[in-house]
Amino acid sequence: GDSVTQMEGPVTLSEEAFLTINCTYTATGYPSLFWYVQYPGEGLQLLLKATKADDKGSNKGFEATYRKETTSFHLEKGSVQVSDSAVYFCALSNTGNQFYFGTGTSLTVIP
Amino acid sequence: DAGITQSPRHKVTETGTPVTLRCHQTENHRYMYWYRQDPGHGLRLIHYSYGVKDTDKGEVSDGYSVSRSKTEDFLLTLESATSSQTSVYFCAISGRDRGLGNTIYFGEGSWLTVV
pLDDT of A32-83, one tens digit each? Predict the structure, then answer.
């Protein structure tokens, strides 16, 4: 079945460091791929999405490219800030309205 | 703002009592979901709805029931609350996102403690 695997956390980085959070997926066909962010005490918020191969989603300095050949959708940011501290979830949607989520990666950015 | 309101946001209840969580949307989306989030388990789907009076079970539906009598409201009921149902509950909705496929949006969460 469809599934998402994302890197285990927690991840701790210094401010202005480069961030990569790996995400790979298993799915038939051509799923849509998402990254969500969850700040403490809040719900998940859509960060970015991509709906077809080679698409790049971007938002707030974060980027992820839909790589069908490697079934990946890694999240990157060139220079993280303390305010980026949160839990990040990779997700996919294939047929219909079924969504599959990774287990989340906790990021802490220290000044 | 995804137009989703959950109530109550926080609740403490006693073991064995029934509890109902409400989700209200203003987006007129067809699909609505209830998830629970627990440390070490990520997000787990409890039930979902694909239309008025149309619901189906998710992976952790035991001990929960749902109802959807109007497009905008999706209720989650814990028939007899147990301590294992202490969790954060998220309502979500999904629908077409400006022709770019379906996207799921989440409410702010309901923190439930069963003592």
Answer: 999 999 999 999 999 999 999 999 999 999 999 999 999 999 999 999 999 9
Of the candidates B30, B41, B108, which has its C-beta nearest A43's C-beta?
B108
Residue B37's closest CA among A104, A63, A81? A104
Kindly determine whether residue B43 and residue A32, on different chains, have CB atoms separated by under 8 Å. no
Yes or no: say if A27 and A72 are a contact pair by the CB < 8 Å rule.
no
Angle, alpha carbons B77-B81-B82 (nearest 5°) = 140
Phi, psi (degrees; rounded to nearest 5) at A54: 75, 0
B90 in A contact zone (CB under 8 Å)? yes
The dihedral built from the CA positions of residue A66, B91, B6 and B87, taken in this order, carries a sign that is: negative
CA distance A34 to A44: 12
Half-sphere exposure of A81 (CA within 13 A, CB side): 4
Q: A53: which DSSP letter?
A: T
- For A21: left if phi > 0, alpha if psi spans -120 to 50, otherwise beta; the answer is beta
Q: Which residues pair with B106 in a beta bridge?
A: B92
B40 φ, ψ to 5°? 85, -10
d(CA A68, CA B33): 28
How far is CA B83 from its chain centroid?
A: 18
